[in-house]
Structure formats: structure tokens, C-alpha cells
Hints:
By secondary structure, the chain is an alpha+beta fold. It has two helices and four strands, in the order βαβαββ. A four-stranded mixed β-sheet has the order 1-2-4-3, with helices on one face. Strand 1 (about 10), helix 1 and strand 2 (about 35-40) form a beta-alpha-beta unit. The longest helix has 12 residues, at about 45-55. The protein is globular. The chain starts with 7 loop residues before the first strand and ends with a strand. The mean pLDDT is about 95.
Amino acid sequence: MDAVQVNKTLDLKGLLCPIPVVKMAQAIKTVAVGEVIEATATDPGVMADIPAWCRTTGQELVRITRENGVISFAVRRVK
């Protein structure tokens, strides 16, 4: 796997849907186009919600993984 330069991190653990998506939507506006936000969450809903949000907003889902109940994902701002 290629290393991805992370420009901002978010801790969304303990937050329930739709708050992780709302926080990501707010945070993506604070980074430049091409930069990456990496986040961690515990709500299993983000496994479906973050990819759907990326598709509908045109952002790039760089990766999403789940390990020991913690979901990690990285999103690149495309526009």
C-alpha cells in the first residue's frame, strides 16, 4: 500500500450517525484541494455513510478499514 500524506486528523470515536459525516463535511472545507483528512470512528454506520458521502460530494475515499471496532478512513478533497 502506498503511503498517503495526511494533512488533518479527526477523532470521531463515540459519535453516532450522522455526526461523523457532518464533522467530515465541515472538516473537508478546512483543507486545500488535494489534501487528505484521516479520521477514526466507532459507529459502524460510517462504513456505508462515508463512501456514500464521498460519491455524492465528489470527494475521493482513499481508504477505509475496520479493526477491533475502530473504523479508520481517509478522504482526499477533490473539489
